[in-house]
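Action item from last meeting closed. Structure (303 res):
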């Protein structure tokens, strides 16, 4: 019981509820164990339970159907960790199909709370109900706001990257501030590009006072994969055929919490895929222009 109560005390959803009442709620929690990649529930299934994560992580993902191939890919919406909860809509709307799938990432232990058991707990102390559902709405509203920001960013960035940029530095100068206006908090960023002449990653563009922040950070410009360097610094890498084409290091002055890190990392990773495609197009156009000039010089003959 102590472990359940400690977990419940850490949840924003249950903030302000007396410990004695949390202990009573703990009596209704049923432990559920899941192996890596095992679904907790599938999109479209009918649910009536809320889940609290005590160990491991859960990936929330939405199916993206391909009518041509009749297959389904997944769009990751969130990665939740210990102290988080999910499946809230099952408490609000009865017999409503799940809007996304929940999949365990690594060995995961959850506590399940059914709608009926929640009603029994609240029924024993009706004064808790208004505060509980008020915080529930705040939780759902926050997730919707963050998802809306991500979708708006990706739409905005996609349109921007359709422009015919003359070079990668010009593209970074336009794209980086566009990304950062959607990030919450005080951020700086630095973009690196591979320089084939010195075989190094050169700092090509910055936003904010990135160089001052860089003195405190452990950045590897030649890193090969996306990663959090610490709890306030994320590096996205643009893969290339032989080596990375470059990367962007984003740094926030205030450390991020776990859920913020998961959501921000996902948003920046998706943005990086769009930028990587733009870099490939810029490189292709530069090579094509060089081939055209070489062809003209050959046709013109020697001097």
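Sequence:
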């Amino acid at each position: 019981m102590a472990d359940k109560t400690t977990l419940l005390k850490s949840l924003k959803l249950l903030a302000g509820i007396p410990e004695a009442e949390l202990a009573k709620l703990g009596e209704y929690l049923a432990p559920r164990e899941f192996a890596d990649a095992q679904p907790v529930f599938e999109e479209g299934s009918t649910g009536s339970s809320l889940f609290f994560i005590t160990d491991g992580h859960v990936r929330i993902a939405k199916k993206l159907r391909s009518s041509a191939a009749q297959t389904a890919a997944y769009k990751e919406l969130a990665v939740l960790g210990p102290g988080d909860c999910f499946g809230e809509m099952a408490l609000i709307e009865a017999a409503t199909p799940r809007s996304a799938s929940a999949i365990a990432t690594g060995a995961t232990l959850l506590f399940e709370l059914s709608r009926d058991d929640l009603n029994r707990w609240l029924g024993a102390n009706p004064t808790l109900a208004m505060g509980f559902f008020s915080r529930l709405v705040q939780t759902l509203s926050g997730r919707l706001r963050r998802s809306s920001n991500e979708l708006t960013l990706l739409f905005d960035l996609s349109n921007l990257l359709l422009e015919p940029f003359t070079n990668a530095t010009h593209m970074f100068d336009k794209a980086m501030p566009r990304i950062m206006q959607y990030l919450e908090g005080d951020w700086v960023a630095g973009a690196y590009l591979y320089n084939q002449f010195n075989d190094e990653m050169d700092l090509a563009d910055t936003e904010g006072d990135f160089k001052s922040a860089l003195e405190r950070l452990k950045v590897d410009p030649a890193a090969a994969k996306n990663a959090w360097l610490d709890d306030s610094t994320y590096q996205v890498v643009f893969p290339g055929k032989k080596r990375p084409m470059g990367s962007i290091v984003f740094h926030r002055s205030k450390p991020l919490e776990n859920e913020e890190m998961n959501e921000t990392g996902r948003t920046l990773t998706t943005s990086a895929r769009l930028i990587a495609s733009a870099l490939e197009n810029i490189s292709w156009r530069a090579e094509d222009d060089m081939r055209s000039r070489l062809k003209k010089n050959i046709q013109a003959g020697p001097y």
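Note appended to the action item: The mean pLDDT is 84.
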